[in-house]
Amino acid sequence: MKRVSLILGIALVSVFASCSLDDDFEMTDTDASKMSVNALLVRSIATISERDGTMITDDYQYNGSKLLKINSSDGREIVYTYAGDLIIRKDFFQDNILNSKEIFEYNRQYQLIKYKRQNASGVTTYNAIYTNNTDGTVSVKGYSGGTTNQSSQILDRKVFTSGIRVNKVENYTTQNGSPATQVFNYSYDTKNSPFKNITGFDKLAYYDITVNSNYYNVQSVTRGTTEVESVQYTYNGENYPSSANKGSLSFLYTY
């Protein structure tokens, strides 16, 4: 079954130094979780295709509330690297072979400012620059390869947020030689996201293509007045999703 994420599956600030793999953020292997002892962490997510009945299970492994890796029943693995409480790298493997990696850089206010994807050989195939605007929005410019010049720019958008929740994304494009704007609006429930208590996820509410529901759960996405995606949830006694349905896919959550 082809891997499909559940809308979970976000900024250049020159006055702040960015943190990356080489910076001096303290790395701790025995970090005590800062969350409540009653807070839940998702342990596995099963994705079931209603078309053919196949199921893929993703198992989540932690150190405290920091996500170490996700192992999938189809041979995929994602390994997370932290600097302090910030996720700075994700390595993607298929059958124990490195396929690609994502690298994140932040400013001293813990805001995402740079993101890049690299292939297994370390060649950058895509990178993005984020500008945190004074009105609370985030401007995103994405480039093919490792350059940041106008000829390589392939993405221009603005992300409208309320805290760590993304409410709207404006995509700026050109259609028939004229500027055009695509507007995507996001609605949420008032329950807990399965990823609410994972350290560092709140800093990545938006970084690539999809919106990551790090506090509440995305219920619908509309483009203009047209609904392009919707999800229906059932919840457990702690108000976390126990299952969800999105089109032909069903999801089962274990905590």
Question: What does this entry look like structurally?
Answer:
By secondary structure, the chain is an all-beta fold. It has no helices and 17 strands. It has a 17-stranded antiparallel beta sheet, with no helix packed on it. Strand 2 (55-63) and strand 3 form a beta hairpin. The two termini are 24 Å apart. 23% of the residues are buried.
Short description:
By secondary structure, this protein is mostly beta strands. It has no helices and 17 strands. It has a 17-stranded antiparallel sheet, with no helix packed on it.
Shape: globular
Percent helix range: under 10%
Number of strands: 17
Give, in order, the helices and strands.
EEEEEEEEEEEEEEEEE
Through-space gap between termini: 24 Å
Give structural attributes.
17 strands; globular; disordered N terminus; 17-stranded antiparallel β-sheet; 255 residues
Write the layout of secondary structure elements.
Layout: E1 44-49, E2 55-63, E3 66-72, E4 76-83, E5 86-94, E6 97-106, E7 112-119, E8 124-132, E9 138-144, E10 153-162, E11 165-175, E12 178-188, E13 218-223, E14 226-230, E15 232-235, E16 241-246, E17 249-254
Antiparallel strand pairs: 1-2, 1-17, 2-3, 3-4, 4-5, 5-6, 6-7, 7-8, 8-9, 9-10, 10-11, 11-12, 12-13, 13-14, 15-16, 16-17
